[in-house]
Specification:
Strand content: 15-25%
CATH superfamily of the largest domain: Metalloenzyme, LuxS/M16 peptidase-like
Helix content: 40-55%
Strand order of the largest sheet: 1-2-6-3-5-4
CATH topology of the largest domain: Cytochrome Bc1 Complex, Chain A, domain 1
Order of helices and strands: EEEHHEEHHHHHEHEEHHEEHHHHHE
Largest sheet: 6 strands, mixed
Number of domains: 2
Radius of gyration: 24 Å
Structural class: alpha+beta
CATH architecture of the largest domain: 2-Layer Sandwich
Oligomer: single chain
CATH class of the largest domain: Alpha Beta
Shape: globular
Amino acid sequence: MSHLSVNRTIQPEILEPEQLAIQIPERRILPNGVSLNVINAGENEVIRIDLLMKGGRWQQSQPLQALFANRMLREGTERYSAAEIAEKLDYYGAWLELSSASEYDFITLYSLNKYLPQTLDVLESIVKEPLFPEKELDIIVNNNIQQFLINTSKVDFLAHRGLVKAIYGEQHPSGRLVQEEDYHRINPTLLREFYTHNYHSNNCSIYLSGKVNDDSIRRIESIFGTEPWGTDFRSPENKTFIAVTSAEKRIFIERSDALQSAVRMGMLSLDRKHPDYLNARVLVTLFGGYFGSRLMSNIREEKGYTYGISAGIMPYPGQGVLAINAETANEFVEPLISEVYNEIDRLQNELVSDEEFSTVKNYMLGDMCRSYESPFSLADAWIFVQTSGLQDSYFADALNAVKAVTPQEIRELAQRHLCKENLKEVVSGKKMS
């Protein structure tokens, strides 16, 4: 019997994807004006419903208003108590996620198709008739205060807060730090006010993903897409805020009992619509965006200053933040920061080798392919496109950027966008004598 012998000393050829077959949502406008985006994919009899409400932290009149208005939706409605909501969703094997971001609030329900009528009944009540009961709100606020106080003893939490405040300034919603007293100002009236302004059919778009059939589309349309729902149908105004960056280069936040120091370095970076953005993603990945990155290879593997160090662009609206994150022993803070600058120098002055460049490109291409495999990750991808104001060509453009960018362009990008003078250095930990 003959068999094919494989020479295991020769690495198999790496094939680059020619293009990403990203399924575009089927889009329609429902009779009441709500936009519906359908991604029918996957084999499992599961469906995910995402309701996007325009109006996150940037629309609130005081800190935490958007977060708690969103969080309290599941804590009691005209038809169901908090316990009944939890019981029903659990009984039907459904899962509800609530989240609030800078410019959007999200309500996400995972449901088995066969129980969709029952789970949609709960979802409708949560979206259209929440009560914001005071007793439940007090419990949740107190739990959040306890978690906040625990977090304020952690150096990584303190360093992150210090960095966004230094970069954006306190008048900017991204730089305005939540304080304990902000929790005490939250009350049902304040949450109802935010809910009324932002949770209505004029302000809503819906994504349906998973094994979507005509019946599920019909049910969604009848509940959320036929009649207008909500009371205040004004769309939130588009707000813009100016970052006022601190003049200080180094910010130190003391924790006298800290065993390690948290180091955060960062600066304002590129808007996602900037012509350099997609190529800059390759630069930042090479610099600190994966396990084989420059920062990891040098500062973790060679120097042993930290267990992990990373760099990435944090996606705030408008200009994001290029942030470098690490935790290290107190005595290694200065050499670690020094090596970050050395790696920036190398990127600005030396061309990346073909071998290293090939590795980072293959990593990014593989990561892209994995990111769009499931119907729910596809929904996440298209929600990202919508909330970022990007075009449908974003995924093809991102793939082409990774394939086409050159070592020379990477060096030029590093010279243009990795400005050492602009990097803020925030250290939280024990003061070194």
